[in-house]
Structures
1.
Amino acid sequence: MSIDFESLKDKAVVAAQTGVTRVKELTETGVAKARELADTGAAKAKEIAEIGKLKVNNSAEQEAIRKTYSELGKLYYAERGSAPEAAYADACQRITDAMARISYNNERIADIKAAGQLTDEEVEAVETETECCCEEPKEDDPPCCCGGAPADDEDKPE
């Protein structure tokens, strides 16, 4: 049995060349896939960044709307608060009641200051030290650790 080394050599060269060609094809395909994935990732990142910017813009617009609603409410109350239309009567009354409570509290503060001969600076120093560490309490919450009563949701501005 004789072995044809020349034929084996030719077959080995062809196999090696085929292998090299196949590796080149796979490498090119892999590079193309990697490039495609990178481009897709970059496009997704740009889209996500744009969505983030738009959400921030929406938040700013919502804040502008909230402020404008507040201004609109203040204007309405200033012009029509004493004789509001039926749909606004309850809200105007809540504002009037809250203003009356604030006025009463301010009178009490003035009386207490006068009786105790306290200065504004002394009162402000105490207020700074005793600021409430709690979140704003809800209607069903017990009194806060700072001595505050639960908030009445009806008195909160919207």
2.
Amino acid sequence: MNKSQKFLLLFIGLCMMAIVGLVAFNVLMPKTEVKPDEVRVMERSVQEEVVEDAKLNVVEKEYVNVYFIGKNEHNEEVYKAVKREYNKDVDGSKIRFAVNALVRGPKPDEKQRGVYTEVPMDAKVINITEQSDKIIVNLNSAFVTGGGTESLYKRLYQLIKTAKLNSNLPVYLYIDGQRADVVGGEGIMLSQPLSNSSLDN
């Protein structure tokens, strides 16, 4: 064996020793462990963010009451407050939504439960003007036409109760753009703003 062969064998031996040493070092050295708590904290954080996002997307349901007529448990005729789901962003103010719902009348399922209205089918909301100190509900003349005196009293009370329940401001009734201090062919006196005593004459 000549000198160059000896040198080559020595070099190979040194390389093998270095490789064995590196392998042994990796095996014997303790690895950095990921603590289970750290994983849980990260997972928990994600879940909390999802919950918070869900809370932001939940829209609280609101309701308004609209007064129709029905029977109580003693079969007596009473004014019935019917709940209607309301969305401020879609429906505007509560009184606007409530008066429009009143004029449209009971829904089919409400009718099946014996709820009805004295508001004529051809009654329409012309406009509802909301000012800082009062609200003007302007209806067409069909609202005060036909049905007789008793029917007119009932529909006026339906409007009064619905308006008062859904507004803290004074509410005035106008018919075809004119303030309605006297309504119907019978000349019913209506004191304004609307209140539970508006028809006490």
3.
Amino acid sequence: MADGRSHDRLTSLLALPYGLLWWPALGPAGAALAGGSFLFGGLWLSPDLDTISRSTRRWGALNLLWWPYRRLLSHRSLFSHTPLLGMGLRLLYLGGAVALVSALLAPLGAPTPTQLMDACQRLWMQQRPWLLTALVSLEASSWLHLIQDGDPVPRLPRLLRRRWPRRPRLGRQRARHQRRN
């Protein structure tokens, strides 16, 4: 399992080559979007947001946003360290936080959550290739993290782990006696 510095170093090192892979299909703007999304996903939306980590500290004062996320998930859980599911849940969590802040600030003139959803739908209809590129790049950075951790099977979250009573182990003497009989 790699430490935070190793994750950051490899993410930063591979962001440019990853972005350049998109150049033939989407041109220089698409390459910049892919590389930037890869970098953002690896440094700010890391699977390690379930701990107090370098990626959590990068959020500065907004790192309090991730406190409930850390409390709900244990480190390397199924919901944080699983391909597709982990990044998808982090994006949903972040979107939910934005919607909550929007709802709280709506009386002060901020856009309502409904207005934000309408804007997101329009953006999806008009810029789908760009958004898909960004989403794939965010997921690619998550996969890089998981590959570095060598984490093929994440743990179940605390809430879903069942505490099975352990069977008492037989002592050596008793086990030998049972084998003879």
4.
Amino acid sequence: MRITSIDCHVLLQPAFDITAASSAQDDIVVEIHTDEGLTGIGETDVNPWIAKACIEAPGSHNMGVGLSELLVGLDPMDVEGLWDQMYVSTAMNGRRGAVINAIGALDIALHDLRGKALGVPCYELLGGAAHEGITPYASLQPHTNSYEEYRDSLIEWALRAIALGFHAVKAEITLAGPFAHTGMREPWERSTEVLAGVRKAVGPDTQLLVDVQYAFPDADTALGVLKTWEEFDLYFVETPLWPDDLDGYRRLTNEQPIRIAAGEWLTTRFEHLDLMDRAGVQVIQPDIGRVGGLTEAKRVCTLAAERGLTIVPHLWKTGISVAAAAHLAAATPNCAFIEYLPAELTESGLRRDLADDNMKLVDGKVTLPDGPGLGIEINRDALEYYEAVANEAYQP
């Protein structure tokens, strides 16, 4: 079997807001086609036009090759070997950042393709099932225009998640910093008020996670606030500091008891090694597309296991990424949760429409994916619709 072509689909939601802090408005979906009629599907969370350029641009020398021209003609079954080849062959342009993100989409598609060719789910080829089921948490990020609306909406969404059968919820409490909702700039005391309201609403038996999305300006500020959050019995606090502040993260992990989680923006196992060994972060969150795909995400999971650390994959795209995270979690003994956004809890039409992850929530867990490859199918009508929106929005 040989790769014959690669298609890149840039997708955009209508009435997108370039000032909004959410990448649920856009996507890039890649399809890797073969001479035996099989196609693998992948996606990644990065500016889709940049990823498309990384994949389709022609190469100029042996460490600045184009990803598409590199893969066409090769055997897609050697997935891990192809990852290493892509990494080395783009090293002068890549090693980190958008090129690795683009490799991530291709790698997910290659895993999907290999699973389809062999007739088995991806997790079987990642080491086999390590769990009977996967525990998801509902990731809750309402889009509102005022503090009061935000507080009430977040509590309402948390209650809806419990009603849907979730045993764990993550509250995106971002009232300051680069991801502040619709420009809100509220004092930290109000974040504590929101958190107290969510904990009261969901009760003591629900696992509660918090994401502040890089909101704290420094470790001293973070430590002062986290001290007031100890009473809420949090599973973790995600991305409290800018990702480059490794020394600040080390202080947070050393000087207060709440687990710290991070990793969503990082590429490759090498950046995650800094997060584990220098920053001392206890919960590692590789985003499967951004980190470089399932191949590299699995390497990160292995390194975390060697250090006794927990994996909780990050994802913020469509059912393609949900399925990839489920397969990674299934094959990773040290994975505690996956991030999950069912259609009932998302405001993004693109996320709802593009792909069905085929996952069912029963007693707080989702069953292991059982279809070949990722086990998902693309809604072709939705793909064409959102691709047409992108083409209309940005004419070349």
